[in-house]
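This week, think about what follows.
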Amino acid sequence: MKEIVLAGGCFWGVQAYFDTIDGVAETKVGYANGNKENPTYEEVCTNTTGFAEACYVRYDENIISLEDLLRNYWKIINPTLKNRQGNDIGTQYRTVIYYIDSDDADIIIKSRDEEQKKYDKPIVTEIEPLKNFYDAEEYHQKYLEKNPNGYCHIPREFFKK
């Protein structure tokens, strides 16, 4: 099993989407690469903690490759927007690929460079090693399963297997 953390705007939709991908064994939402321990959602929303709303993804590389996982990630974000996706605006909504295995960095950069060919504007999605990740509060986990009409910038048809 491999792990990666993906930030793509509001974490509810990112989790709901990756839960539909064959080979993804586990997801959880949380706060990545900020500057304090155990942040709360309210603190993250102040734009002072440095955290991004993110989704931890554990996947079976025998079923889905990192390249394919990233192709799926690029489908659900606009990587040219800084600090926003859909109606969500703020630094916590920036797009970032946080790698856990340093061997993944080259694959991620190659994927970004390939994706850049589709855009006139530069991709602003950050690529960084994961420094820290704190699970979000329980009410955020699997939020769109619990609240099927909850807001999400990702089109609902993307959530079908």
The radius of gyration is 14 Å. Residues 105-116 form the longest helix (12 residues).
